[in-house]
Amino acid sequence: MSEVAFFADFWRPFLIIINFIYIITAIIVSISVIMDNRNPAKTISWIIILFLLPFIGLIIYFMVGQNYRKQKIFTRKGMEDFKRIQSLREKQLIEIKEDDFIEDENIRKKLHIIKLLLKNNKALLTRKNKTEILNNGSRIFGSIKSALKNAKDHIHIEFYIIEDDRIGNEIKDILIEKANEGVKVRLIYDDVGSWKLSGRFIDSLRRAGVEVNPFMPVKFPFLANRLNYRNHRKIIIIDGKTGFVGGINIADRYLYGDRKIKFWRDTHLKIEGEAVSSLQAVFLIDWHFVCGRLLDEYRYFPKTAIRKSNFVQIISSGPDSDWASIMQSFFSAITTAREYIYITVPYFIPNESILTALKTVSLSGTEVSIILPAKSDSWLAYYGTMSYVEELLEAGINVYTYQKGFVHSKLIMVDDIFSSVGTANMDIRSFDDNFEVNALIYDEDTTAMLKKHFLEDLRECKKISPEEYMKRPLSRKFFESVARLFSPLL
Predict the structure, then answer these.
(1) Whether residue 453 lies in the annotated active site
(2) Is 416 a catalytic residue?
(3) For 355-377, what is the mean pLDDT?
(4) Architecture of 325-489 per CATH?
(5) Which residues pair with 162 in a beta bridge?
(6) Active site residue 239
(7) In this structure, how many other beta carbons lie within 10 angstroms of the beta carbon of residue 52?
(8) pTM for the whole thing?
(9) For the structural domain made of 82-89+127-311, what CATH number should be given?
(10) pLDDT of residue 260
(11) Average pLDDT in the 455-483 region?
């Protein structure tokens, strides 16, 4: 017998045992996935991965596949400690039944969304607000830097991506300058989204007195239960009076583009007024989560001098919440639309509920128009997104692709009175896995402005023809189908 044959015979029983153990483990995990009663697309995708990618599939599942909302691994991160929010919510649920609480008849038509979010998210409806739509990097960062420089008491910043580049250092220098002036500066960055952020960058902030904390740092052996659930929020609060929320991250590509994508189309919202307190509450709850300290002094919730009436609800969602509140708000707004729904989103990988809602209202006669990117920063997300286009077109939905660059705005406009600006994409990851925050606006002027920008963006778009799209190459259809299969997982 040859030496090779000897070793083959020697190791064969061990390989059989290992394969047997893996198959049993994969079956047990598959049963667990099925018993979770999660989205069928996710369930099927995980089962395929577990059996087609031996061992690797199991590792990937334990890294990013476990259902933490179902398992209640995360808590509400200290929400119960904000007794002020709970009492105001209960009071508002009583007041909202009165006819004079909301006098505008158009806003009252969206009362079902307002009540939904009061119950599932404790999202207070605020009235005295001034909002400003900010488009694209130059204007967004210009407004942010100006507001930061005018800070007097505190600056709270929370971002998914912060990079050690030109704009990142400009923001860093402002924060250091304000900290040296005595302004209290606190910063949360996502440990995965900001993985390129250098220790030198963070140390320079801390030396100046800025309090910096990563959101759920990923370090072995905790990799398995932290990698998939990321803080995708982009929040800035200044003195409790001015707030920013939207799609842009702190990185040069959002301002200057990059080698592949020369122009990034994005939208942010500047808020002054009562809604800033709601945005502040989201930040402070996250702050309590990352460092264990609860800050609820009245200095962080000052009374507003704004008298303009602009109804805004700040809603947050994540694996810590009992309900997928942002998804539910989208679903409620879509299913009750009567005139039109305009959507701009970079990643469109909806769950079955949202997809069915969009197709149903379109078939019922409501105009539905969606702007998607013609080019993307993720090929998997791009092909996954495009896999839904055919059935959207079949339902009579207008689908456009943005040709000028990469559209990264996350917007919804409904019936001239309701709009949403925030961090959540219309995809399964934003609905289930990420920590997100959106501003829901019940205001004709704001919605009209967003609608105007949407119609302007259409000039930079190509409308997808159903006839042409059906003729796309078989190879393209294959890539779309594969991406659709795996995109719910990543």
Answers:
(1) no
(2) no
(3) 96
(4) 2-Layer Sandwich (3.30)
(5) 250
(6) yes
(7) 9
(8) 0.85
(9) 3.30.870.10
(10) 86
(11) 92
